[in-house]
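Priority: medium. Attachment 1 of 2:
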């Protein structure tokens, strides 16, 4: 398996990976919008190649955690998907591990993810609300998880996550319409 930065020739297969994993095109549309945005970091859009085929993709994006007194940078992991035929053999783990390495190297101290227990089990993500980090529109049963990327990486960080505007349709898919 190879984990590498995405290339333009991967764009269509990346769409197919997410559309088949999520059953709609909200995530692939998000990725295309983010690619066209000023905050996009190419090195944070990773594919996994197995047998010469692209079978998984993950993207990391800059966000901030806003409190009344402070704005703290963080990186959000979203979306992540692997073709169903290639799941359960470590592709998802390898993509996230490389993302952690690259975002840490770029100076990020905190990673956030909205997602299931996969992240807890493999990487030790914990519930972000226990640290006082919340998503924009609190709703039950949809926890944000966090992983400090350095010792003390989450210290003093609390507030509401502010996503780039390109995330709005996905946030509505995740959390329902914001007030
Ligand atoms: C989640 C996903 C990316 C994992 O990819 P993968 O290549 O199968 O991951 P790995 O092989 O590295 O790890 C598989 C492990 O994750 C666990 N896992 C997968 N989905 C899970 C879930 N929904 N809840 C808890 N654990 C989960 C598996 O049980 C397996 O555990 P094991 O290693 O102890 O057997 C893949 O299942 C997928 O594409 N799912 C659909 C899209 C999705 O849910 N994306 C994440 C959104 S938060």
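Attachment 2 of 2:
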């Amino acid at each position: 398996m190879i984990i590498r930065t995405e290339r333009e020739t991967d764009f269509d297969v990346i769409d197919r990976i997410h559309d088949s994993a999520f059953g709609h095109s909200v995530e692939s549309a998000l990725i295309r919008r983010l690619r066209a945005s000023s905050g996009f970091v190419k090195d944070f859009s990773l594919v996994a190649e197995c047998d010469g085929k692209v079978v998984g993709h993950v993207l990391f994006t800059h966000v901030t955690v806003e409190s009344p007194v402070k704005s703290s940078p963080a990186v959000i992991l979203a979306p992540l998907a692997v073709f169903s035929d290639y799941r359960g053999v470590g592709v998802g783990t390898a993509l996230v591990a490389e993302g952690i390495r690259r975002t840490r190297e770029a100076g990020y101290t905190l990673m956030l993810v909205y997602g299931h227990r996969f992240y807890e089990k493999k990487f030790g993500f914990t519930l972000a609300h226990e640290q006082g980090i919340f998503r924009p529109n609190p709703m039950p049963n949809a926890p944000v998880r966090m992983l400090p990327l350095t010792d003390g990486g989450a210290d003093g960080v609390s507030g509401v996550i502010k996503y780039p505007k390109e995330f709005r349709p996905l946030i509505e898919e995740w959390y329902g319409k914001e007030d």
